[in-house]
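Repro case for the chain-ordering regression, as requested:
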Amino acid sequence: MTTGEVLLKVENLSVEFDTPRGAVRAVDGVSWQVRAGETLAILGESGSGKSVSTQALTGILEMPPGRIVSGTAEYRGADLIAMTTKERRRIVGDRITMVFQDSLSALNPVQSVGTQIAECYRVHRGMSKRDALKRAAEMLDQVRIPAAAKRARDYPHEFSGGMRQRVMLAMALALDPDVLIADEPTTALDVTVQAQILELIAELQAERDMGVVLITHDLGVVSDVADNVVVMYAGHVVERASTAAALDRPVHPYTEGLLGSMPSADLKGQELPTIPGTPPSLRAIPSGCAFRPRCPIAIGDCAHDVPPLLTVAPGRDAACIRRTTLLEREAG
Amino acid sequence: MSDVQAVVSAEAQELGDGRTLSNRELLRALLRKPQFVLCSLLLLVFFAMAAVPKVFTSADPRFCELSKSRHSREPGHPFGFDIQGCDYFANVVYGARPSVLVSICASFGVFILAGTFGLLAGYFPGFVDALISRTADVLFAVPGLVVLIVILNSVPNRSIWIIVGVILLIGWPGGMRLMRSTVFSVRNREYVLAARSIGVPPLRILRKHVFPNAMAPLLAMTTLGIGGMVGLEAALTFLGVGLQPPSISWGSQFGVAASYRDTPHLFLWPALFISTMTISFMIIGDSIRDALDPKLLR
Amino acid sequence: MIRFVLRRLLAAIPIGVIVTLGVFALVFAMPGDPLRELAGDKPIPAAVLAAKRAQFHLDEPFLVQYLLSMKDILTGNFGTTFAGADIADQLRLRIPVTLKLTLLANAVQWTLGLIFGIYAGFKRNGLIDRSLLLVTLVLLAVPGLVAYFAAQFVFGVQLKWFPVSGVLEGFPNSYLLPALVIGVLGFAGLARLMRTSIVETVNADFVKTARAKGLGEQRVLWRHILPNALLPVVTFIGLDLAGMFGGAIITESIFNLPGLGQFMFQAIKLKEGGVVVLLSTLAFLSFIVINLLVDLLYGILDPRVRHV
Amino acid sequence: MALDPPAERRFAEEVGPTVRRLTGVVGVALGLSLVLASCGDGKSSGSGSGDGARSTVIAIAAEPLEYINPLNENGSPGIQVAMAMFAPLVTTDPNTGKLLNVMADSVTPDKNSQTWTIKLKPGNTFQNGQPLTAKDYVDSWNLTAQGSTAWKNNGFFSKIEGYDALNPETPDGATPKPTAVKALSGLKQVDDLTFTVKLKVPFSQFGLTLQYFGLAPLPEEVRKDPDAYKRKPIGNGPYKLAADWNAGDDIKLAKWDGYKQTAPDADAITFRFIPNADTAYNEFQAGTVDFVGVPSTKIKSFKDDAPDQWVTSVSSGANYLTLPAWDERFKNPKLRHAFSMAIDRKAYADLVGLAEPAKALVAPDMVGYRADACKYCDFDAAKAKQLLAEAGGFSGPVNINYSTTSATGQIFAEALGNMIRQNLGLEVKYTGKQGSEITELADTRKLDGLRFSGWGHDYPSIEDYLTPMFKSTGDANFSGYSNPKLDQVLAQGDAQPDPDAAIKLYQQAEDIALEDMPLIPLITKSDAFLHSAKIEPRVSKYVGVSALWATFK
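-- result from build under test --
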């Protein structure tokens, strides 16, 4: 059962990095929102700014060199960015939690996993050590780790990749958060384990009516679990749609390209099409539309201005001057 | 020396998994740092002193009038006179050569030795590794200064090459360990595996694939350690096993002058030159380290 | 764990043999007659020389001399030096001196190094951090000799804050000045290492995780960053400690501390192979034992390298 | 040994190894007394000088002693301590230079000075209360003369009849076995207080040699088990151990009531061992010791560092540059003269400090010294070059050996090297080695090039310079020099009963040696000592500077 309440709403978020060669804008005017029970996928290649945006709003981005230039990120109406660190800490880690990609390096190697999970209870709930550890073991059990009570005393390197990711999940879900931000949670895992983890997330999400922000570069993952998808390219949101709609009829040529390069049964035996070229370095983003150099339908005007994110159909936005309406896609 | 080495190796260790820069990128990054440029210039001056001392002073460092022993400066003799009544400026200038040679040769030699042994030990586990590592253990376990003193006391003629040789003997194990651990992390990378699978001979793999990708930490350690060598040379003179005259070096100048407190210029100048050179090398080492640090490249 | 310790100790035996044999050979190969060294420039009657030579087995072949020395060492029957000093007495006298000096110096070094290193690492690029980098560079560049002589003259002779030399005022007074100098010179390295290590650790993913858990900065620092950042530092400190029985030859000489370093230097000058080998063995044993302890400690600190 | 500044070994070697002779009774006494006596000062900073005002802390720049046994001690640190704890048979009057009896009541030679009768004063005892008898001397000396005892003063007794029976020739390297004979046949106890010494050959100076502290008697209990007493010596002198003495400790002495002869002023004396001479000097400046020898590096500055608190010894002895007679390149006397005249002795003496250019082969305070003896000792670069040319030049670099044990060895070597290089146009190289290694190489005639040497007389006669260093069989003839004519003149001098006539002959020998010049005279030098304001060390032109005999202000 889902209430559909908007839990986290990001508006016009821009993040820059100060480098020795001047400021670099990694996230530029990004907006999205996630509702209770919804899974929002943020899709993009590495360097597209998808992780930076979530790290910035949760305050775990190294600042400096990072810097939030503009934007708001409201959790139930309270702007996380404008808050003091102290206030934010009451929400991040409690109501909004995160899971990272590389669970081996994301877990503290010198603490037992039980201790690490228990720390959430100790810090946010003020529990005694013993109670916290007991809850931690229960949590491990909930993420289907066998012999959880015993394994709570083990250290991260003693778990397999999949098990470790479950530990991460247990830690993130320990306090029953409203929003789970999962940053490439399955990238390092092999396909079967990946499926198990995604399934687990979906299950737990359903139990808790939780909003999930799933950051990934894998369109397959998106198609499997996401309700809505935000596509990012070079720091910009280039397309925003429901997953079904985006997969069915992508508007932005980049989304289109991604979709085209996804292996599928139809294309069996053929060479997989790819998007020509490589993503731009953040230091040298092309003028106008950043995707222009790789875009099959680029025209001269694309070089002039950064294309705004326009509504091309109800619930569908895209940033492409060639396709300001959904219909133009067919035409173009 | 050992302290510096240990720190540096530990500092450099962190670079092990760093990505490698192309040489030109590295140079460009370095040239942007004013302190790097300044120190490089200073070092160039020292190197020039070592190579062509005549350019810096017209005085003959070995023309001495004992009657001027330890006189302070006078026109034409900006640093005054040394104990023998020789022009001290000329002596300090000429002293650059052994000091620079010892520090550079010893450091470079340690780099080569440690690099080679480290490569071999890291790339050929088993007998080769055991042989090299156990030898290093032996050298680690003996206090280095003791070996230095004993050997330098035994040789008939203490030239800079002997001193360099002994430093090499006791200096390589530290660098070897660092190199070995870096090689461990590199030897199973894709490009190495690829090269191996297509049958590239091991030595070529080492030369073309492993070494270039594993040498950065050792290089940083070496640059940071160069300066300590000059200080070491001074200590040897204090212990009576330093360079012998007519060799002129900052270390022996300082070592000899340390007891003559009433004429401070005798130890101030060489100490200043030693320290300046040491700091220059360290800052350059630091800069290289920073430039290689992947965290700052992002 | 016991197996690990045993294996390490067993592996140390051949190394110990090579170390002692090598050191003994080096001393043996030094030119000059050891007993003449003892006599200075004075002629000594042939009969006296011969008697001494026999007493110290100097008339035996190299290998026999070595084996006799090792036998003496292993049976704890150290005998006397050429000059007649009871070696066991000397060790009883000198080991505490060296221990006090190195421990005090290390305490200074660790305290300063850890405090400044941690602070600078946490407040990266701040004023303290930048000053620290500069100061440590300078310290690392100052030749030890300069520092020792200068400190003795300024603080001992001129200001009279510390005893000039010797151990008459006992612990800690007599050891303060040399320990401070060693400690301050050594702190530079430790502080830089600590700082680097923290800087490296701060960027680790698990620190992000900790932040994402909503932990306070202090908790992140002390509970997550520091325990990990200390690991390489432990290794460094271990190496430092392991070398301490080598003694600080130069410091001990300048500050007239009758420690193992001076004993060793003296023995080398007198070509006393037996003493040199004994001291080398001590240094070697402490090296092995301390390394082992550090490895065991490391195993406790870092579950990834636990030695079972 | 006078040359050997007792204060520290490094110091001793700084101009070059000074050759000291075991038998050097007078010499030892001279040298050692320099150091010995200092008395303390009240403000000696609580660092362990005894209590009370009349106490002294004397710094000895040497490794701490391992035992106190005068008979097994020939280094100045050990003899210095022995001088406070043991009393000699005779001593030199510091004011008149005459011989004074201490333990001896009389020392009488027979007609030809071959058999000497020594009578002891009655009533003297050891510090354990046991009376001091002739037997103690005879037994102590016999024990030392026995080669297998391996005590360092064994060599002293080689002049006494029967020595060879106790020290049979052993094949090289073999261990001497205790001999069946246990006593010197020349040593006879006559009664409780009298014994006689019969020498192998007549020796008129034997009485002088008896002031050597290395001849002290040991009481019976010590003789039985010397090792058991090495840290608790029982002496017969003015001071005894004030407290237990353990390895590495200061040696603390207190006045011994039982001493019946004239004793020094101090109530308590502490000997402190500080191996690094510069450190010892610093200690003095910090006020923790009362008496210290000035290390060579401070010769130029000590007068400013401690105004009114220094004394210098009257110099005696001489320093030389020794040329190797075994090297053909140095054979030509003209070449040797060229080297000598290339040296600016004045500048060199200034560099060394407290030194004077040498003008003869013997010390200036000897009877028979001639300031104009050396015709080739004036600095004249042009003449030197000319002589070198006449000698046919010199091939290869000139190697100068210096002792690395000394802080200044290298500096002094460079100074001379610079002169030889600049004034003769020769290439010079340097070899730093430990002092003893140089001596050994010279001894075995393997040393390449020049070395420094020094000599202090054992008894005040120019004969004691010429015989040991220049006679073909001289025991300190490290240059390998041999000239039958000189040997012959020396022998004539030895046989000449009239002292003045003998000196004439010895001077002839000196002239021969100067013409051949196996050693180039360099300088004669003094030593300096610092003392705290409270004490005034005794300075004697006969026995040098003594801290033990200092007076309190």
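Ordering looks correct now. Chain D touches chain C through 57 residues (CB under 8 Å).
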